[in-house]
Amino acid sequence: MPFNRPAVFRPPSERRSYYLPLTSGCANNSCTFCAFYGSRLQIRPLEDIKGEIDALATCKSSGIRLAGADEAVYGMASYWDGRRLFLQDADALVYPFPKLREVLRYLNKKLPHLERIAAYATPQDARRLSLSELTELSQLKLGILYMGIESGDEAVLNRVGKGVDCKQMIEAGNKVKKAGIALSATVILGLGGAEMSRQHTAGTASILSDIDPDYAGALTLTLVPGTPLHRRWQNGGFNPLSPFQTLYELREIINTSRFSRCFLSSMHASNYLSVRGTLPQDRARMLAELDDVLKKGDPSLLRPESLRGL
Ligand code: SF4
User: Fold this and answer.
1) N or C, which end of the chain is more exposed by having fewer CB within 10 Å?
2) Is 244 helix (H, G, I), strand (E, B) or coil?
3) CATH number for the segment(s) 12-296
4) What is the pLDDT, as a whole number, of residue 309?
């Protein structure tokens, strides 16, 4: 079966990156809220990936287009500044380690000005790889991993089929940091619905404090048609939070989490309000921004539903 280039799902901070697919889909396709639920993992052949790197490097160095390369390569190359590259897809770290190392070596060789390589990683991926393997990847410019934590409450994690518990996620996060790779942990506001909001918020602040990531990104739950959680909502089994209730969750997480130094943001397009800053020093300013909007209670201050994205 030919490899199908996946659509781009990327963190906001990777907007200027080149998107290089190693896989399509997600190996851990069990999360009931996620657009990747039930997706079939496709592993892209190594030679195919090297061919794309060759086409990209040739185009950037000489403007020459190699025959047979995907048009998407040239579309991205035309605006790419050559500094950052994001490995697709939802858990690129699942790519078999010897081949993954080879991809990174090849990128370093063909694109020597590359400053940082990034990818999504599941906690399962980070636990499976050894510390020395992760360290090798770090030395090959794998500079940041985006890891979905989603919640720090065991009951919420169980209910959404995350497949790992808090202890395992803390272990995974610590291993990534120890390998010298920056860690960005993402959590989902509203994931516990109204019923589990309090425990979701407390647990999430607690696990973020325990992991103490370099970056933390808050997303807001979007009910994706076709997912089990969407069906549960349609059947009356899930009571989502209102937009303002999600902001109360964000406020509580910012107020109660304890970091040594973490850039926390809600810039992702799924959120109703963008807040960002470095914790702990920006805590008071971030809380004041949220309190101002919460006090006014004016929906026009929030991102309209039609402009929210995944
Ligand atoms: S949340 Fe992450 S691990 Fe779970 S299905 Fe989606 S992409 Fe995969």
Assistant:
1) N
2) helix
3) 3.80.30.20
4) 81
